[in-house]
Write the structure tokens for this entry.
Amino acid sequence: MGVANERSIAWGIARALDREGARLVFTIRSPRRRKNIEALLTGLTRQDALVIELDVERDEAIDGLAAFLQKEGVTVHGLVHSVALARPEELAGEFIATGREGFRLAHEVSVYSLVAVSRALRPLMPDGGSIVTLTYLGSERVVPNYNVMGVAKAALEASVRYLAYDLGKDGIRVNAISAGPIRTVSARGVSGFSAILKVIEERAPLRRNITLEDVAGVAVFLLSDLSRAVTGEVIHVDAGYHVMG
Ligand SMILES: CCCCCCc1ccc(Oc2ccc(Oc3cccc(O)n3)cc2)c(O)c1
């Protein structure tokens, strides 16, 4: 969930999963994204991916996704949730200016969508599975301008823990990757984004920014049996920047 273009984190993960032989199902937010993603799919090893439109703000759309996959006889073994949204004007300036509608939108799209899709896909994971979502350091510490998205990501990380508790009995693990900043279409929506890349290059233990491939490798680990005893966890893939004061 969440491939917008070739720079999307979800696309980096999809490419790595394809390399490991996974069969992929993509959900896109709007039909105009279909052209983009179908062009990307030609570069994959497997050519049997499915592309399904999904508006995560509509319960009937999420139920429709589960029904469609059920009809296609698909068994789900992994879910990558890489979707978030906020009002652009609320990703800048003071957090205290966040309005009721903006707060709702950020939490509904960026947090509740994980709960709703996890519930809908649970019956399609009879063999157990692994759910991975994306978060950011702004959930743990103040990152100016990240604002309501930081509050939403804190809720997302708590949701990962509660979902891990509920789904553990079904052999379904739930984890988050806290990725360092990557220049994606979403990142452009956060004021002050470019400035932070330079700070990371100067201060992160590994003295560099991270790439799609850095995140994808840990995602494949979390989606594979190698992480079979890991659930409810947040793994920082950020060149170590989170350890700095
Ligand atoms: C000043 C903070 C710099 C580091 C930000 C790193 C980051 C980059 C991108 C991230 O992903 C999103 C996804 C959606 C999002 O909300 C958006 C993005 C564009 C337009 C819009 O209406 N909402 C904001 C960030 C994210 O969660 C975190």
In short: The mean pLDDT is 98. The chain has one domain: 9-243. The radius of gyration is 17 Å. Residues 100-121 form the longest helix (22 residues).
